[in-house]
Specification:
Elements lengths: L3 E5 L5 H10 L7 E11 L5 E10 L1 H4 L6 E6 L2 E7 L3 H4 L1 H52 L2 E7 L2 E7 L4
Antiparallel strand pairs: 1-5, 2-3, 3-4, 4-5, 6-7
Length: 164
């Protein structure tokens, strides 16, 4: 029976961790995702006391291997790898996994920042249009005519009232 060794990782984003695992050969069909941690299974089919939220079952790891797990904690996922499997999935593998994770995390942050920038731009345009409509309505009630000119992102409104 192999002992499990746990290693803390700075990985906190499940989506990015799953993408990094896929890049290292464990696509989504090979990784179980659980809301509550489940027991890992040893090479002989025995349930272990170690539990994890993300589990790569032993049949995907190697013929004589144990499950590999990732337990979600407040500070990041804790990698749980048996002593037997550390030869292949030890510190060097975790470093590669961490590097892949960082790439996916950076791409996700860029994507989210771009989505936020777009959302803010749409909101800004909505506010400008609402203000423009309000000015037109108020000017009409006061007897003014509104002339609009645009210069790039700048909108100028001129209120004109003819007196006879």
């Amino acid at each position: 029976m192999s002992a499990y060794i746990t290693s803390m990782t700075p990985m906190t984003d499940e989506e990015c961790l799953l993408a990094a695992l896929a890049e290292l050969g464990f696509d989504r069909s090979k990784v179980e995702v659980h809301a509550n941690p489940v027991a890992l299974v040893g090479y002989a089919g025995d349930r272990r006391q170690q539990t994890a939220h993300l589990v790569i079952r032993r049949q995907h790891v190697g013929s004589m291997s144990n499950d590999i797990g990732f337990l979600a904690t407040e500070t990041g996922y804790r990698a749980i790898v048996s002593d037997y499997d550390r030869a292949r999935y030890g510190q060097a593998w975790l470093v590669r996994l961490g590097a892949c994770y960082q790439q996916y995390l950076a791409a996700k942050r860029d994507r989210l920042a771009e989505e936020e920038r777009r959302r803010l731009e749409v909101e800004r345009q909505r506010v400008v249009e609402a203000q423009r409509a309000a000015i037109h309505e108020r000017a009409r009630t006061l007897g003014y005519r509104v002339e609009e000119t645009r210069d790039g992102q700048t909108l100028r409104l001129a209120l004109i009232k003819r007196r006879y």
